[in-house]
């Protein structure tokens, strides 16, 4: 089994899906000869030609809008947005067209498309190469939203997204692109959208996270273990629809919930998870659910490290829960 | 059925016109259409007008909430409809196109069902009136967001090209839509890809109250095509045969792999922007009456008279026949009743995720209580 990085796993998934299904195509800025600015589509245009791996004009509205029409007409487009921060010029296509096409037509037309985008901070990218806009998408009925954190998941989830009959926003934390490596089978496998992964079992506290901060969350859990605290760690993987069952089962056992995300706190996915757990498990909780998140500021450059959830911040929040 | 590929000049100074206001055929070629075909255009225009009148009545009598009247656009809309291969080509219409979708063959009962937002609507009453769509006829369901359907039309056309389906996508919009970023994005990408798509502007010179002079500094809409490297055609959209022949020309051009075009059909909007608008706030009485003097149906009637194909008795019978058809369809639509309230939770996704199941259960319990 090859040992690959997250971005290589994305490339494998795309390659396999392009080979498997003629309707699958890629479109985006610099995805062709250049192979994408992060090389996620490296070598694919050479293999499948300029029609199936298509360089587009510099227009997110054109990329996402054309993807809607391609999908409605029967293709399976995978659109690449160069950075999640640049999805906004195309947001009307995603929100008004893709998300609502099935609904507004009463199921007559659909937009089975994938919108891949490198997201998140930690790469000294300033506020326009660092954002985590998943809450916007999760707040838009009709979209599914995946945020990956491991190469193995990235491949299996991207394949599921491409085969899904609804539009899927597929977020790839760019700081993990080359930071994590693992064995990824070169054969076909799928990971279902909407299922979380239990990364670590424990009975004292539940840590829920997804995407980039999974790294810090797992490190914090290890440090807790050294101190004799057994943390259960859940990687949501899909934030819309998120896996409530897995989270509730865990918190029912531990009585304590800490949600970790690098997105701004207010009206976030983290808030949604915390609110749901409060509503449904109120009488089993040993402490109020807490959130460690990014801040409600634009993503800063100079304070890049200060902004992101750190192991220390996670440990401090966990301590508050355990001492409550 | 028609002379193949009559060539029309792009970027003309004057609008392309085949029938003048007096009803004279002024083109340097013969139309080559049979009496039956010529009368068919008339029938469809009349049906479009009668539909419009009926919808306005439905609003005034409180039976529906909204309508975007298309009176004044009939020649343009019927011309477009006749230029497409129905059920094969794709249409990406906008909200003022009920006359167009009627001429495309959308059953009137569906149009009324959509207008009433009830169970006769194939889209299950999800959108406000004037938002039709039809899967069997490849009519992409209208979206309110102006110009948001332009890039999807381009995308569908790219798919048609890649898969060699010999289809064409025709996308319609108003003059205001050409100011949107999505319009630029869609036209530009289509031109780069030489996708088989035709962009048709039904230019009534108003976006609600905003006159075209505040919308664009271009001399007309058609010239905008130049910047994208595609031909633009400036056409008298009150002339049904000019609309038809030019749109057909560019549709077949697109089908032949020669890429997209932009067509501007210059029309009038006889009514207010919508039933919620009062056009006397921004159009003078003189302007309104001058526009109504140029009725596209009357012009075509004069033409048919000259061809010996129109007489009052025939026209009256036709009017009665259409009115009856529409009334029957309306009655049928009214009988359909409300859509199932729990359909609110369908079609968000292919299957309902847990959170929609929960929310649906909550509403179901409320309804039972
Ligand atoms: C993106 C967006 N902005 C504003 C509106 C509100 N609105 C609805 S119709 C309209 C005018 C459109 O005019 P035009 O494109 O010329 O078409 P017409 O109505 O004249 O046929 C406006 C501003 C909208 N529906 N979508």
CATH class categorisation of the largest domain in chain A: Alpha Beta
For the CA atoms, what is the radius of gyration of chain B?
21 Å
User: Architecture of the largest domain in chain B in CATH?
Assistant: 3-Layer(aba) Sandwich
H and E string of chain B: HHEHHHEHEEEHEHEHHHH
By CATH, the topology of the largest domain in chain B is Rossmann fold
Tally of DSSP helical segments of chain B: 12
* Beta-strand fraction estimate of chain B: 5-15%
Give the N-terminus to C-terminus distance of chain A in angstroms: 46 Å
The class by helix and strand makeup of chain A works out as alpha/beta
Shape of chain A: globular
Largest interface: A-B, 47 and 47 residues
Mean pLDDT of chain B: 97
Strand content of chain A: 15-25%
Topology overview:
The complex is a heterodimer of chains A (324) and B (369).
Chain A: E1 3-5, H1 6-20, E2 24-28, H2 44-48, E3 53-55, H3 60-72, E4 76-80, H4 91-98, H5 101-104, E5 114-119, H6 134-138, E6 144-147, H7 151-163, E7 168-173, E8 181-183, E9 197-200, E10 205-209, H8 214-226, E11 231-235, E12 238-240, H9 244-254, E13 257-264, H10 269-281, E14 290-294, H11 304-307, H12 311-323
Parallel strand pairs in A: 2-3, 2-4, 4-5, 5-7, 6-7, 10-11, 10-13, 13-14
Antiparallel strand pairs in A: 1-8, 6-12, 9-11
Chain B: H1 35-60, H2 74-83, E1 90-92, H3 98-104, H4 108-116, H5 150-162, E2 169-174, H6 181-193, E3 197-203, E4 206-207, E5 210-211, H7 224-228, E6 232-236, H8 240-255, E7 261-266, H9 285-293, H10 296-306, H11 312-335, H12 354-368
Parallel strand pairs in B: 1-2, 2-3, 3-7, 6-7
Antiparallel strand pairs in B: 4-5
Helix pairs in contact in B: 1-2, 1-3, 1-10, 1-11, 2-3, 2-8, 4-11, 5-6
The complex binds thiamine diphosphate (TPP).
């Amino acid at each position: 089994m090859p040992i690959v990085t997250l971005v290589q796993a994305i490339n494998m998934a795309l390659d396999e899906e392009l080979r498997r299904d003629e309707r699958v195509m890629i479109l985006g800025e610099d995805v062709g000869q250049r192979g994408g600015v992060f090389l996620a589509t490296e070598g694919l245009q050479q293999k499948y030609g300029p029609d199936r791996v298509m360089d587009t004009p510099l227009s997110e509205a054109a990329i996402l809008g054309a993807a809607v029409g391609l999908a409605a007409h029967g293709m399976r487009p995978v659109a690449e947005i160069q950075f999640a921060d640049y999805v906004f010029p195309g947001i009307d296509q995603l929100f008004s067209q893709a998300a609502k096409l099935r609904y507004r037509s009463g199921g007559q037309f659909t937009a089975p498309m994938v919108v891949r985008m490198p997201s998140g901070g930690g790469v000294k990218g300033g506020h326009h190469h660092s954002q985590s806009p998943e809450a916007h998408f999760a707040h838009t009925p009709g979209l599914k939203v995946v945020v990956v954190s491991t190469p193995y998941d990235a491949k299996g989830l991207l394949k599921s997204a491409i085969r899904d009959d609804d539009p899927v926003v597929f977020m790839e934390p760019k700081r993990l692109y080359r930071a994590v490596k693992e064995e990824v089978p070169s054969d076909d496998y799928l990971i279902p959208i909407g299922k979380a992964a239990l990364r670590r079992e424990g009975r004292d506290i539940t840590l829920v996270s997804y995407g980039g901060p999974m790294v810090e969350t797992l490190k914090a859990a290890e440090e807790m273990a050294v101190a004799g605290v057994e943390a259960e760690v859940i990687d949501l993987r899909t934030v819309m629809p998120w896996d409530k069952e897995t989270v509730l089962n865990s918190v029912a056992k531990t009585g304590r919930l800490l949600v970790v995300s690098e997105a701004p706190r207010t009206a976030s996915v983290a808030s949604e998870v915390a609110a749901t757990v409060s509503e449904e498990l109120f009488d089993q909780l040993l402490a109020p659910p807490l959130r460690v998140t990014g801040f409600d500021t634009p993503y800063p450059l100079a304070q890049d490290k200060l902004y992101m959830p750190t192991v220390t911040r996670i440990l401090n929040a966990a301590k508050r829960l355990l001492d409550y | 059925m028609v002379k193949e590929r009559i060539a029309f000049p792009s970027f003309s100074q004057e609008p392309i016109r085949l029938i003048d206001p007096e009803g004279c055929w002024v083109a340097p070629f013969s139309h080559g259409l049979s009496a039956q075909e010529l009368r068919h255009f008339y029938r469809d225009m009349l049906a479009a007008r009668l539909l419009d009148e009926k919808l306005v009545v439905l609003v005034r009598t409180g039976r529906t909430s909204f309508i975007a009247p298309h009176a004044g656009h009939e020649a343009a809309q019927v011309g477009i409809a006749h230029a497409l291969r129905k059920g094969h080509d794709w249409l990406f219409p906008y909200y003022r196109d009920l006359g167009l979708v009627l001429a495309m063959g959308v059953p009137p009962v569906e149009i009324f069902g959509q207008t009433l937002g009830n169970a006769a609507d194939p889209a299950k009453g999800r959108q406000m009136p004037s938002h039709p769509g039809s899967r069997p006829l490849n009519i992409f369901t209208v979206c309110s967001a102006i110009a948001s359907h332009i890039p999807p039309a381009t995308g569908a056309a790219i798919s048609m090209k890649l898969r060699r389906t010999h289809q064409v996508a025709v996308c319609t919009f108003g003059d205001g839509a050409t100011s949107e970023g999505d319009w630029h994005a869609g036209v530009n990408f289509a031109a780069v890809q030489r996708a088989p798509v035709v962009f048709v502007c039904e230019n009534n010179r108003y976006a609600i109250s905003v006159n075209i002079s505040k919308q664009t500094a271009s001399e007309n809409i058609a010239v905008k095509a130049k910047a994208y490297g595609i031909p633009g055609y400036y056409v008298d959209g009150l002339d049904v045969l000019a609309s038809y022949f030019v749109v057909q020309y560019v549709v077949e051009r697109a089908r032949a792999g020669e890429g997209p075009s932009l067509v501007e059909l210059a029309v009038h909007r006889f009514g207010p922007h919508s039933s919620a608008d009062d056009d006397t706030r921004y159009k003078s009485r003189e302007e309104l009456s001058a526009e109504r003097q140029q009725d596209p149906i009357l012009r075509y009637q004069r033409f048919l008279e000259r061809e010996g194909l129109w007489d009052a008795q025939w026209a009256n019978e036709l009017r009665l026949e259409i009115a009856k058809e529409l009334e029957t369809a309306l009655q049928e639509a009214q009988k359909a009743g409300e859509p199932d309230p729990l359909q609110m939770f369908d079609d968000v996704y292919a299957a309902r995720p847990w959170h929609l199941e929960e929310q649906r259960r909550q509403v179901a319990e409320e309804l039972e209580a």
